[in-house]
Design goal:
alpha/beta, Helix Hairpins, Heat Shock Protein 90, Rossmann fold, 6 domains, 5-stranded parallel beta sheet, 27 helices, 17 strands, transferase
Amino acid sequence: MARQKAVEANEAKSNFVANISHEIRTPMNAILGLTYLLQKQPLSPTVLNMVQKIHHSGENLLGIINDILDFSKIEAHRLDIECVAFQLADVIDNVANIMSSSVGNKPIEVIMSAIPQGAESLKGDPLRLGQVLINLTGNALKFTKRGEVVVGMTRVNDYIHNEKVRIRFSVRDTGIGIPQEKQKTIFNAFSQVDASTTRTFGGTGLGLTISKQLVGLMGGDLQLFSEEGVGSEFYFELTFPLSDPATNSMPHMLHQRILIADDHDVALSLIVDTAMSLGWRPESTSSGQGVLDKLEKLGMSTFDVLLIDWRMPGIDGLSAVTSIHEQMPDFDTPVILMVNAADRDKLYDNPASKLIDAVITKPVTSSSLYNSLLEIKNRRGGIKNKIVRSQARRVEGLTILVVDDNEINRMVAENILSSEGAQVELAENGSIAFSILTKSPQKFDVILMDVQMPVMDGYAATREIKQNGELRNIPVIALTAAVFKADRDAAIRAGMDDFVPKPFDVEELIGTVLRCTKKQNSSGVSKARISYRDETLNDPYFSESLGLEKWSDKKSYQSQLAVFLEHHENDIQRMTDELEKAHYVEAQRLCHKLRGSAGALQLKPLWELSTQLEVLLEEESEDYLELLKELAQCMRETIELIREYLSNNRELDPTIKARVVEFTHQTEHACKSVLKTLSSNDADKVEKALSKVDKWLPEELVGNINSCLNEHDFRRAESIVKEYIDSQNS
């Protein structure tokens, strides 16, 4: 009886939290949505500042709501950890952005270590990993008045085993520290270092509890070392499976020569590590005078990039840049990046700021450094043929039906989607929406559907839509304040295609709309068949322009597509045959080869699905059937489009197949011969050597080497040849 009552009480509490979360999120959607729209209006600086503060306060309130909800989920064992492919740099860059905005005007150095080598592309839960790091860095900044906050990442004992990597994450500060007696309870719910009525620091006291639980769910243990008055370090270790990156670094961005100046020893060391992790060649100095001395000694032409801290004793960053331009006015200066911890407005107010190309806010990450330089080189014309897609009016041409019983929510959604170029119609419940749809079944590209509505709710409306032959292919996106997994599952069971929580993030909303409409377009022949001569080709299964971003040589690319058809057309049937015999290892091997070929040819949907299936087969999971069907459909569409492309392309007869080369002693000798010549850094010599041995080499390899020679990127060519040898010998 007592157990039954406890279960009922716990269920009642969970339902209460879910309901109260829904009730709070609905007005929060209006607050955040309307302030987002207000910030896009012409406002005076004073009014804009007030609107920004309202928006920021709303985000803080949402963070508190999420903390309470996460804590409730963890208690009820309803929080799931995902395992998806992600780039660690994306997570760290997001943490760095939040740190840079949180530090304010405090005299604090915020420092981010480089991504450990070999740990760039992982599988895991990037959202929860980021949540833990954001919480820990937020606490560190809150309790530190001056000094430094350092986020560290290192491989544990250089651990890489069975395509897995173990990483130690740490957040260290020079703040107030935690008394010994408090350290025993610091991870308890609602526990705070300063719990007095006159306390300086706010918060719910749930952040560390949630972080501890999340790290535990991800397979680690959040630990603490702290000394009162000296500072604290929170640290944990996690093991991640490695994932294959979908794209490689642009050749134009490799081997940049960079001079880094920072008077803070730790920051300087970690920024040097970050530059090295990008494959760049760094030199460093601790002062503005050091910059001038090195440039005078080595020459301006030595460096592609100057990365200079603004606030340094003696000659600061801006003074150093001014001297550079005064002493060498006729020289085409390298890219100049200014590093700044705070006071960005004061920096821009200085007339000398016009001499710099961009400002990077601390902490410097590999992503922020790489993207800043890429943008500047593109602006200067240093990178040609780069496709630049405007982010404005991203859903132009789409007609969207928004269904919500809340008038403010409808208005917010309409204004945001309209500002992005969409045509928007509104309905206040499911019944009205269904009536609008049946009158114009071909009109709408996607439906945003609230769940809880009077007359007819979102679930019932979606079921009606999916049972209607004319409407069933229109994607339906659940737009709801209910955020438990059970709510998401209910939406999927009703036939909804995706899920966006309220209050919605604009980028997430637009991304989900684009993703769903892309899927829909791929199923319609008229929308999917796009001219292969069109450089804006965007077929989701196959894209020549996307493929040629990786393959500079068009003939080699076409030739390898023909090889793909020859070798992989029957892969799905082979996998099916092996799985019927429960031969998971052989099926996984076939899937792995398919994944590798799809990735090399930039067949991204095929690569993504085969990657997911390979994970299931590795675990010998029996839940592979639906994914295998989806992969088979993707394979059919991809093969059909490749055949159509090859048959319409005069540069290659589709009956001509690329040369298939077995890896023999002669092949290995040919590779070593090419490697030896590449060390000369002489393109003519390499081409001559390659022409003598190319009959022993795969056309794909020859094409890749030639692409590197066109860019004079000899080191990249060496890496490609070595990777090929290693792959054949393994």
